[in-house]
Amino acid sequence: MAGGSERGSAVIDERPWYVANELLAFLIELLALGLLCWWGFATGGNAGLRVLLGLGAPAAAAALWWLFAAPRARFRPALPGVLLVKGLVLGGGAVALYGVGHPVGAVVVAVVTAANVTVAEAFRPSPPGGDRELSGRSRHRPA
């Protein structure tokens, strides 16, 4: 419809830099899982331990993310809890890169991750119906 208020395509957000930062966040999440996998397969004395760490570390990180930090997380802790989980998973990726012998790369990953999380949380739109402390159920707060 020409001149109407409807848009012809779906828009995630009107701020392109916000969308770009969210895309970067997703890539950082994937990178962290990949780095944890690399570290796991490079660590350990025998093949069994390497497989366990190589598959278990990223699986544990993904489960933690799914439970507490994903946009549609199973449990929604307050913002400090979400940031703690993000720090463990994404910071774990940087630590894993350091662990496989790439300290400069680890610092770069850590700095980019910290900047990304800071921007994402500072400019994240408020969820409908309240703040991040709500866990899918409405809570009565005395006035």
Q: Helix and strand layout, with pairings?
A:
Blueprint: H1 16-42, H2 47-68, H3 79-99, H4 103-123
Q: Can you tell me about this structure?
A:
The structure is a single chain. This protein is mainly alpha-helical. Helix content is 64%, strand content 0%. The chain has helices at residues 16-42, 47-68, 79-99, 103-123. The longest helix is centred in the N-terminal third of the chain and has 27 residues, at 16-42. Residues 1-11 and 132-143 have low confidence and may be disordered.
Outline:
The protein has 143 residues and is mainly alpha-helical. The chain contains 4 helices and no strands.
H/I helix tally: 4
- Overall shape: it is globular
Roughly what percent helix? Answer: 55-70%
Helix-strand topology string: HHHH
| SS-derived structural category | mainly alpha
Radius of gyration: 19 Å
User: Largest sheet, if any?
Assistant: none
- How many beta-strand elements? 0
Task: Tell me the distance between the termini.
Answer: 46 Å
Report low-confidence residues grouped into runs of 5 or more. 1-11, 132-143
Beta-strand residue percentage:
under 5%
